[in-house]
Design a protein that fits this description.
Chain lengths: ~110, ~120
């Protein structure tokens, strides 16, 4: 099983600041990584797939990078609606899909 | 507009059974793999099972293999998850999610999700 470790567990920032979230895989997963945003009481929303491709309708504020074992989700300038929990997910060794434990992005 | 609507959740005793449904609309259902992902209360996301667009292939997490059965009826645009021998650790919100790609059998990225249905396993 490929484990995904997200850091930090909680990130406290103010609107307008830049957010950098990390996801590290226990084995190389090439670029087979996605990022999701989840707000309380809602379903996850796909932001990024294949490490750096924005999903349809996703703001250019969101960008993804990385390959192999280290990946980053960057939010260039935080808007109030960006405060949520973010999950990474790998599909490298499908069908054994795994998610990271999540990073909570909270307002400072 | 793509919509996925889950139903069938509820309270069930340990060892019991439940069938979840996911009704899809707004896209050509038979062209896409569909997946169940669950989320225990206050916890993260866990992949449960995926079925290919034509229903010929199914995949299961080890935690549910042998107890859960995933199927689909493309004439009704509906997905079914039959859950047997339920355990307390199966308690979660169950989401169905559409695969992002229609060319491959399944790409295992999920671009549309339902709002989820809560399954509680407790005596």
């Amino acid at each position: 099983e490929i484990l995904l470790t997200q850091s930090p567990a909680t990130l406290s920032l103010s609107p307008g600041e830049r957010a950098t979230l990390s996801c590290r895989a226990s084995h190389s997963i090439s670029n087979y990584l996605a990022w999701y945003q989840q707000k309380p009481g809602q379903a996850p929303r796909l932001l990024i797939y294949d490490a750096s491709n924005r999903a349809t309708g996703i703001s250019a504020r969101f960008s993804g990078s990385g390959s192999g074992t280290d990946f980053t989700l960057t939010i260039s300038s935080l808007e109030p609606e960006d405060f949520a929990v973010y999950y990474c997910q790998q599909r490298s060794n499908w069908p054994q899909i795994t998610f990271g434990q999540g990073t909570r992005l909270e307002i400072k | 507009e793509v919509q996925l609507v889950e139903s069938g959740g509820g309270l069930v005793q340990p060892g019991g059974s439940l069938r979840l449904s996911c009704a899809a609309s707004g896209f050509t259902f038979s062209n896409y793999a569909v997946t169940w992902v669950r989320q225990a209360p206050g916890k993260g996301l866990e992949w449960v099972s995926t079925i290919s667009g034509d229903g010929s292939s199914t995949w299961y997490a080890d935690t549910v293999k042998g107890r859960f059965t995933l199927s689909r009826d493309n004439s009704k645009n509906t997905l079914y998850l039959e859950m047997n021998r339920l355990r307390a650790e199966d308690t979660a919100v169950y989401f169905c999610a559409k695969d992002i790609d229609y060319v491959s059998t399944a790409l295992f990225y999920f671009d549309y999700w339902g709002q989820g249905t809560l399954v509680t396993v407790s005596s």
